[in-house]
User: What shape does this take?
Amino acid sequence: MTEVIALIFESMNTEEIASTKLGSVVIGQAKGDVHDIGKNIVAALLSVNGFEVHNIGIDVPVKSFIEKAEEVNADIIGISTLLTTSLPYLKDIVSYLDDSGTRDKYFYVVGWRTGYC
Assistant: This one.
C-alpha cells in the first residue's frame, strides 16, 4: 500500500493541487499506536482532493498534534488509533483543545477502528 501511495504522489501535479487548496490537515496516529495504513490512505485521499496534508506519523503525543497545527496554520486535526490502549488519547485531544482555548479554531476528526473481538 505504501508503494501505491508513493506512485500516486509521484504522478500528481503539485502546482495544480496548490492552486486548488481546500484547507490544511494535520494527521497522525495516537500515542502508542504504530498501525498507519488506514491513516496513510486517508492522508492520500485528502491530498489528491485538494488538501495540504501534514502527516506527523505514528505514536504521536496529543500535544504534538496541536503544536504542528499551530506551526502550519492547519484547519483540521485528525487523530486515529486501532488499539484500545491508545483510545483514551482520542478524548484527550478534545480535552487539550478545550484546555488550550483552541477548540473552536480547528475542525477535528477522531477515528477508531470498529470490529469484532
Remarks:
- The mean pLDDT is 86.
- Helices lie at 2-11, 14-19, 37-48, 62-72, 88-99.
